[in-house]
């Protein structure tokens, strides 16, 4: 079996390196929890695990074996590890798939932040593609409520995967227009 040499490892893309580190940290987290007798964990996953799934809206029961980025593959690996820790060690595991979370203190590289920043500055909003792509946008407060609900859930023998989203796919062009109208 061939492994990457140190030189080859140093040539991995930053995205691939971060994805590998993310999965390794998740395994470390689960193992630390197990060794300390923790019986319930909540894992932050991502809608990215759906990959090239053409069915919209997505469902938690959709197949998730076609990730299209190192990030998505790392999240899929974390979900698989959660499944293992539930079945092998009896840990209660909630895996939450977040869908385009937006709100205060959002990452500046995401579309909604860029839209609102440009609107406030009186600049045009740059749309990529024809604006027909559809996404679930979830306000950060709703995401927090979903996390709190998962933490408080106290059923026994619990393993669950849930999407934290609006369940109302919005076209990017429509969402951009709504943001623009509200900003004026």
Could you explain the architecture of this structure?
With 184 residues, the protein is α/β, with parallel strands linked by helices. It is 45% helix and 15% strand. The protein has 6 helices and 7 strands.
User: Looking at the chains present, what oligomeric state does this protein adopt?
Assistant: single chain
Strand order of the largest sheet: 1-2-6
Strand percentage lies at 15-25%
Overall mean pLDDT stands at 77
Topology of this structure?
Blueprint: H1 6-10, H2 14-35, E1 40-46, H3 70-89, E2 92-98, E3 101-102, H4 111-120, E4 134-135, E5 138-139, H5 140-152, E6 159-164, E7 170-171, H6 172-183
Parallel strand pairs: 1-2, 2-6, 3-5
Antiparallel strand pairs: 4-7
Helix pairs in contact: 2-3, 4-6
